[in-house]
Specification:
Blueprint (H helix, E strand, L loop, with lengths): L1 E10 L5 E3 L2 E3 L2 E10 L2 E10 L10 H13 L4 H4 L8 H15 L18 E2 L2 E3 L4 H13 L4 E5 L5 H14 L6 E5 L9 H9 L5 E3 L7 H10 L4 E3 L9 H11 L3 E4 L1 H4 L1 H14 L3 E4 L6 H11 L24 E4 L2 E4 L12
Parallel strand pairs: 7-8, 8-9, 9-10, 10-11, 11-12, 12-13
Antiparallel strand pairs: 1-4, 2-3, 4-5, 6-15, 14-15
Length: 350
């Protein structure tokens, strides 16, 4: 008989994580833990990591669903297609937990050249918001660390300073040498977005994520049609939990790219549906973590490694915590690696 429990854990970033929606100084995640009563030492673990300010669910929703799941473990696979669809982070936790249980708790969920340590996943370096000098230092650190693709969050210190900083970077590093992505997290207004996009185009920016807030579909569709900088939808994907809703968004808005966060869209199955819809419309995509701990990041990375990846992915967020769970994941020279000789330390989960 399958039994289950759950645990809540708080993680501490190495520095305040600035976004246009506020600063993150603490992160809460939840773990769903399952085991067979006849083999209690072998545990499957899945992580639910909703993202305050972005997710459509709330901590109370997560706790309630985890309580229900632990009280009745007999219908989890059915619930993946029913009530859990509307609680994406918990749905993903169940997917992970079941997959890990099948793998005898090894955390090797998708065996591949990645889990053998033979191949890394190219990722972008991520530059969190800060004052101009801090941003300059962080960008330089990412380039020196070997990243050929760097993404900078914009929309907090003022676009003029951010554009000036990007101009400095571009003078030293041409587009042939360094790919620049920016993420606005919906910081622009409809009235000024096109002007900002034209100025970013002068700096040969590869793409911009979510220039205006989610839900402004007509505005976003117009921007996607006219923008000289390719637009990637991010927050607009969150909360669209049916194929019809997803297809309508992509058909009407016609973005150049979509950014898929499994923790926020409902796990591997939902992410695969987004990819299929995007491919059918000639829309590019990449996979991004959402500040999960090592458990969730590992689950996302191992799955991503099985895909046909054409662009750098957004999977470098595990380094932001001072107290992340020790795991065999390592960022080196612009790529995420799984080191099979490394060890997991799950003592904090129990």
């Amino acid at each position: 008989m399958i039994r289950a429990a759950w645990k809540e854990l708080k993680l501490t970033p190495r520095f305040p994580l600035g976004t246009s929606k506020g600063t993150i100084t603490e992160r809460t995640v939840w773990y769903l833990i399952a085991w067979d009563s006849e083999r209690p030492a072998i545990k499957g673990i899945g992580e639910a990591a909703l993202f305050p300010g972005h997710s459509k669910e709330f901590p109370a929703d997560v706790r309630l669903k985890l309580l229900e799941l632990c009280a009745d473990t007999g219908d989890w696979r059915h619930r993946l297609r029913t009530d859990l669809v509307d609680v994406p982070s918990v749905r993903f936790a169940v997917e992970q937990c079941l997959k890990d249980l099948e793998a005898s708790g090894t955390k090797v969920l998708f065996p591949s050249a990645f889990t053998l340590g033979q191949r890394g996943i190219p990722i972008n370096g991520l530059v969190w918001m800060g004052d101009k000098d801090t941003l300059r230092t962080r960008i330089r650190a990412q380039i020196e660390a070997g990243f050929s693709c760097v993404k900078m969050k914009i929309g907090a210190i003022g676009i003029e300073e951010e554009l000036a900083l990007l101009k400095e970077v571009r003078k030293e590093h041409p587009a042939s040498e360094l790919t620049l992505r920016v993420d606005a997290n919906g910081a622009f207004h409809a009235r000024n977005a096109m002007d900002m996009l034209e100025r970013l185009a002068e700096l040969e920016v590869h793409s911009i994520e979510q220039p205006v807030p989610a839900g402004l579909y007509e505005t976003m569709a117009e921007l996607c049609e006219r923008s000289p900088v390719p637009i990637a939808l991010d927050e607009d994907l969150i909360g669209l939990n049916t194929d019809d809703a997803r297809a309508d968004l992509l058909t009407q808005v016609k973005p150049r790219y979509i950014v898929i966060k499994p923790s926020l869209v409902g796990g591997w199955a939902a992410a695969q549906e987004w990819i299929a819809l995007a491919k059918a419309r000639g829309i590019g995509w990449w996979i991004t973590s959402a500040l999960e701990s090592s458990i969730g990041l590992n689950a996302i990375a191992q799955w991503a490694a099985t895909l046909d990846l054409a662009l750098p992915q957004g999977l470098g967020t595990g380094q932001v915590y001072v107290d992340n769970l020790p795991a065999p994941l390592q960022v080196e020279r612009g790529a995420l690696w799984y080191r099979p000789e490394g060890e997991w330390d799950l003592g904090r989960i129990g």
